[in-house]
Amino acid sequence: MTYYLGIDIGATKTAALICDENGKYIGGGQGGPGNHETVDFDGMQKSITEALYSALENAQIQIDQIAGAGFGIAGYDWQSEEAKMKQVILQTGLSAPFKMVNDVVLGLLAGTSEGWGIAVVSGTGCNCRGWDREHKREGRVTGYGITMGEGAGGSELIHRAMQIIGYSWTKRLPPTALAPAFIEMTGAKDLEDLIQGYTENYYTIGADAAPVIFGVAAQGDAVANNLVRWAGTELGEMTNAVIRQLNFEDTVFEIALIGSMFKSGEILINPMRETVHAIAPKAQLIPVEVKPVLGAALLGMEAGGLHLSNEQREKIKAALT
Fold first, then answer.
1. DSSP states of 24-67 as a string?
2. pTM of the model
3. What residues contact residue 87 under an 8 Å CB cut-off, 6+ apart?
4. SS3 of 118, please?
5. Using only C-alpha atoms, what is the Rg of the chain?
6. Average pLDDT by consecutive 10-residue portion of the chain (321 residues)?
7. 3-state SS assignment for residue 205
8. For residue 24, what are the contacts with CB-CB under 8 A and spacing of at least 6?
9. Of 297, 320, 321, 315, residue with least CA distance to 67
10. Please, which residues bridge with residue 7 across strands?
């Protein structure tokens, strides 16, 4: 029997999965947060090791029985980090061939029908990565959100919403139903109290408040609708950057839409689609819910030299979902 390993190394947890060449689940494990930007490389190694050996124990196999491994790593943003990442993985005792990618690529592998194209993540934050059919050329954005002018995840949407609410308070913009909605959500006394509390940090308004904006937009508030359209357009522009890098303008390809923001539906996706189709009319935007570790397992099969047909990929994904 041949076994493959996939590990998704995230900011809050690390998940491991072991399967065979047919996609049969053999065992899984979990470790702590593994993003080196927050737990440093020692913390990353500890979490990977914990998840890996937990999965091996549950699968009742030895580490030298792994034929290929795939790692999706949150915070793996720069080529200069590659050597250190490899060192961390090798220190776990793994001897099988392995591949490493930014964790967004796991969504691409698991969320598209053929394992190539573009993945866009819009949840708390946002990111976008793409691969060509042969997995030789990668397109990307920085993944640093508002710092680099990339949007929009929930954090960027809330940041912009509070600016607009502030504009309405100063009468730079007309009143918006977003203001009373946020006052009710926070328990603020009035609009002035909301602004003071937000700027002085005694009212915390995070990405999890994004559904409030979509709710106000659905009720017909023009300001909220314009805000959501802004977010969709920004996601489209971020995607277009990757499309240009990969020369996908005339290509038929899939864009996997991943993350909680896309649960709002067409109100967000339609302006994104319009923006993308302006330069890549053959692109297909597909909202998906995937387990990133599934993509890591598929990457592990690739690392181990297993060449899957599209039919095999779909069977394995169905078996592991």
1. -EEEEEEES---HHHHHHHHHHHHHHHHHHHHHHHHT--GGGEE
2. 0.91
3. none
4. strand
5. 21
6. 92 92 92 92 94 95 95 92 94 94 93 94 94 94 91 93 94 93 95 95 92 95 95 97 98 95 96 98 93 93 90 86 76
7. coil
8. 319
9. 297
10. 16, 71
pLDDT of residue 1: 79
Cα–Cα distances in angstroms (integers) from residue 157 to residues 162, 182, 228, 320, in the given order: 9, 13, 8, 33
pLDDT at 307: 87
Q: Which residues of 89-112 are buried (b: 16+ CB within 10 A; e: fewer)?
A: beebebebebbbbbbbbbbbbbbb
Residue 75: partners with Cβ closer than 8 Å, 6 or more residues away: 11, 35, 36, 37, 38
Specify the DSSP class assigned to residue 321.
-
| All domains of the chain in start order, with CATH | 3-102+291-320 (3.30.420.40), 111-289 (3.30.420.40)
Structure tokens given for 66: 């792994």
Task: Tally the residues of the chain.
Answer: 321
pLDDT in tens, 163-211: 999 999 999 988 999 999 999 999 999 999 999 999 999 999 999 999 9
Rounded to whole angstroms, how far apart are CA atoms 125 and 123? 5
Q: How far apart are CA 298 and CA 16, in angstroms?
A: 12
Q: How far is CA 15 from CA 42, 125, 172, in A?
A: 17, 20, 48
Tokens describing residue 96: 């099988």
Contact between residue 12 and residue 76 where contact means Cβ atoms under 8 Å apart? no
Tokens of 14: 């690390």
**According to the model, what pLDDT value does residue 99 have?**
96
pLDDT (0 to 100) of residue 137: 94
Residue 73's pLDDT is what?
93
Q: What is the pLDDT of residue 321?
A: 76
Contact between 126 and 160 under an 8 Å Cβ cutoff? The reply is no
